[in-house]
Amino acid sequence: MGFFDKEEKKPDRFRVKSEQYISGMGMYYMAVVVDSETGVNYVFMGGESPSLTPLIGADGKIVVDEIAENLGEKIY
Questions:
Q1: What does 40-59 look like in DSSP terms, one character per residue?
Q2: Distance separating alpha carbons of residues 30 and 19, to the nearest angstrom
Q3: How confident is the prediction along the chain (76 residues), in pLDDT tens digits per residue?
């Protein structure tokens, strides 16, 4: 029995909010990922050079979802 066997499995911190494939000069995977602890939204772009960046709203601020305390679930 190892050290990690004693711990309870925590829910995944990052959750995919939406995803799609974009074609153009190749095929790219794009997803909006939400940090369930902070509510911060990130854009992940997969392809030749994967990248991750905070999602910026029309007001110029980082998009943050409200999260249910102690649950880590997005409030819809």
A1: BEEEEEESSS-EEEE-B-TT
A2: 6
A3: 455 666 677 778 899 999 999 887 778 899 999 999 999 999 999 877 889 999 999 999 999 998 765 444 544 3
In this structure, what are the phi and psi dihedrals at residue 49, rounded to the nearest 5 degrees? -130, 85
Give the type of residue at 40. Answer: V
> Is 39 within 8 Å of 67 (Cβ atoms)?
yes
CA distance 32 to 64: 12
How far is it, in rounded angstroms, from Cα 24 to Cα 53? 21
**Which residue type is seen at 48?**
E
At residue 21, the 3 state secondary structure works out as strand
Neighbours of 7 (CB within 10 A): 7
